[in-house]
Amino acid sequence: MMVRVKFLANFRDLFGARVMDLDLSPDARLRDLLGELCNSPERRAQILTAAGEIHPQVVIMKDGTPAQSLGGLEMPLEEGAVIAIFPFLGGG
Amino acid sequence: MWDKLELLHYERQLGLIGRRGQSRLKRSGVFIAGAGGLGTAAASYLAAAGIGRILIVDRDKIQVNNLNRQVMYAEKDAGKLKAASLAGRLSGLNPHLELRGEAIDISASDIRDSVSTFDVLVDALDNFPSRYVLNSAALAQGIPLVHASVRGFYGQVTTIVPGLTPCLKCLFPEIPKDDSPSVLGPVCGVIGCLQAMEVIKYLLGNGSLLMNKLLVFDSLKGSLDEVEIGRRADCPECGGR
């Protein structure tokens, strides 16, 4: 199953790409996707906490819906899904 | 209706929006929540453009460490209330408006009635608990809300139209504990100006709004990218309606 990942802001440099197409198993979940992506200590530290949860300063959306409301790391993925990864911006 | 000096003030935009558009801006009211980095930029350009009635709300006082990004204040203003100071400053920029500043703590207030007479709300706040209050008020009154936020070298903007777009809780259901994030002044300026432009487009009915998309600005790359966003049927705030 093909899934597209869009990286924005600082994550573009971290992953060295604006867009990445990944071929995942049909039953893959967000946890599997991040496992593929976070293949270095630096990437892992910026995306996940030490406990292995999604870092609170990272926003991950699937087709425009936040991963938190779709099961977090257990969020199922579908063929053609678009995942956006960008920083949480809270200031003003 | 128009005096000579007022028309002269708008001379360089009348060719774009006409007297009809200028009249529409003059008849409009905008509620600006926050007089910080985003609010000073958005309010300045909305006042300059001739929005007839502007209410700026902020509970804070000016601090010297605000001044890298809040460029409408001066060091000698430290300790003064931001909302009143900004309204006063902008009254000089454009004296043909009704401009007010109020020191209200949005996170601790029921602002649904306060916003009801305005055409657009501007989220120029610096924290999400207050943003959620503003989001609720926008939904309750059915008033568009132009959201923006910044951190570091980055900023984001989207226009929330109740019933047509996701609300803020659809997009950001949980928020991290945020300290005082670092931010560069020009990032606030760019994003605050994008907010002002969203307001003007909405009031004039021109162009297309940032509805159902989140615009993300990367100042280091000089890039603007869009993330498609959608309503959530299980949103505790709007229920996807």
Characteristic terms for this protein:
heterodimer; A: 92 residues; alpha+beta; Ubiquitin-like (UB roll); 5-stranded mixed beta sheet; 5 strands; B: 241 residues; alpha/beta; Rossmann fold; 8-stranded mixed beta sheet; globular
List the helices and strands and how they pair.
The complex is a heterodimer of chains A (92) and B (241).
Chain A: E1 2-7, H1 10-15, E2 19-23, H2 30-37, H3 41-47, E3 58-62, E4 65-66, E5 82-87
Parallel strand pairs in A: 1-5
Antiparallel strand pairs in A: 1-2, 3-4, 3-5
Chain B: H1 4-9, H2 11-26, E1 29-33, H3 37-49, E2 53-57, H4 82-93, E3 98-102, H5 112-115, E4 120-123, H6 128-141, E5 145-151, E6 154-160, H7 168-171, H8 185-204, E7 213-218, E8 223-228
Parallel strand pairs in B: 1-2, 1-4, 2-3, 4-5
Antiparallel strand pairs in B: 5-6, 6-7, 7-8
Helix pairs in contact in B: 3-4, 3-8
Number of helices of chain B: 8
* Mean pLDDT over all positions of chain A: 97
* CATH fold-level name of chain A: Ubiquitin-like (UB roll)
DSSP strand tally of chain A: 5
Q: How does CATH name the architecture of chain B?
A: 3-Layer(aba) Sandwich
Oligomer classification: heterodimer
Shape of chain A: globular
Order of helices and strands of chain A: EHEHHEEE
Task: Quickly name the level 1 CATH class of chain A.
Answer: Alpha Beta
Strand content of chain A is 25-35%
Give start-end ranges of low-pLDDT stretches of chain B.
none
Range of helix content of chain B: 25-40%
The second-level CATH architecture of chain A is Roll
Side by side, the strands of the main sheet of chain B go 3-2-1-4-5-6-7-8
Question: How would you describe this protein?
Answer:
The complex is a heterodimer of chains A (92) and B (241). Chain A has 92 residues and is α+β, with helices and mostly antiparallel strands. Chain A has a single domain, classed as Beta-grasp domain (Ubiquitin-like (UB roll), Roll), CATH 3.10.20. Chain A has 3 helices and 5 strands. Chain A has helices at 10-15, 30-37, 41-47, and strands at residues 2-7, 19-23, 58-62, 65-66, 82-87. A 5-stranded mixed sheet of chain A has the order 2-1-5-3-4. Chain B is of the alpha/beta class and 241 residues long. Chain B has a single domain (4-228), classed as 3-Layer(aba) Sandwich (Rossmann fold). Chain B is 37% helix and 19% strand. Chain B has an 8-stranded mixed sheet with strand order 3-2-1-4-5-6-7-8, with helices on both faces. Chain B is globular. The chains are: A alpha+beta (92), B alpha/beta (241). At the A-B interface, strand 4 and strand 5 of A face helix 3, strand 5, strand 6 and strand 8 of B.
